[in-house]
Amino acid sequence: MAPIARIIFCPIITGTENIPRSGRVILASNHLSFIDSMVIPLVTPRRVQYLAKSTYFTGTGFKGYLTRTWFESIGAVGIERGAGQAAQDALDAGRSILESDSAFAIYPEGTRSLDGRLYKGRTGVAWLALTTGAVVVPVGLIGTQEIQPVGTRIPRVRKITVNFGEPIDVSRHGPATSGRARRQATDEIMAAIHKLSGQELAGRYNESPRPGLHGLADKVFPRERV
C-alpha cells in the first residue's frame, strides 16, 4: 500500500531519519482525521502498531473479514474501550507492544480535533514512555483532515505533510508514578508536536466521553495538583 499511497497523495515527509530503526519508540502525533491511523503506518520506515477499538476485529461475513484483515495489516491491536479494568488492560497492551522493542503510535490529545486546534495532551503517553524507557518521536500531521473530513467515508486526494521531530528522552522528568513527571513529560511532547504542526493551541483538553488509551493514565492513577 505504501508505494501506491505515495503516488496518489504525494505526501511531503520530513524527519524520517529521526525514527530509530530498532528498539522501543513511541510516535506521538496530533490527531485531525480518522485517516491519520493509516497515514502514519504507511509513511513510517518501520512497522508501527497502535490500539483500535475491538469492534473492528469482531465483524462477521465478508465485510467483517476485510475490515479485520485491513486493520491487522496496518498494525492495529484490538482493545475494549472503557474505564476501570478496561483502561488498565489498554495501558498494559501498549506497554506490551513497546516491551517487544516495537514502534507504537499514540495520539496524546485523546481524540480527533474537530476545529483544527491542538489540545492539551493527556498523560498516557508519558506513562508509557517512563514505564518502558521508550523514546518519543513527535509527529506533526498537516492537511489530513482534508482527505477525510468528519462524516465522510470516501477519502479525497489532497496534499498532506508528515513531519517527524527529534527523539525525546523524558526520563529526566522522574518516575512514571509521579503525577508531576507525567505532566511535565507530556507538556514537553505536546510542545514538540505544536512546533511540527503549527496548529493554534486550544489551551484545554479535547473533552470526549471516550478519551481512549491516551487519557487512561489519568483514570488509572489519582490526579495530582502540580
UniProtKB/TrEMBL annotation:
Domain of life: Bacteria
KW Metal-binding (keyword) present: no
Chain residue ranges for the region called Disordered: 203-226
Keyword Transferase: yes
Pfam families associated with the record: Acyltransferase
Keywords, alphabetical: Acyltransferase, Transferase
InterPro entries: Plipid/glycerol_acylTrfase
Residue ranges of every copy of the Phospholipid/glycerol acyltransferase domain listed in the record: 25-144
Stretches with biased composition (Basic and acidic residues): 216-226
GO molecular-function term, one example from the UniProt record: acyltransferase activity
Annotated protein name in UniProt: 1-acyl-sn-glycerol-3-phosphate acyltransferase
Organism of provenance: Cryobacterium algoricola
Organismal lineage: Bacteria, Bacillati, Actinomycetota, Actinomycetes, Micrococcales
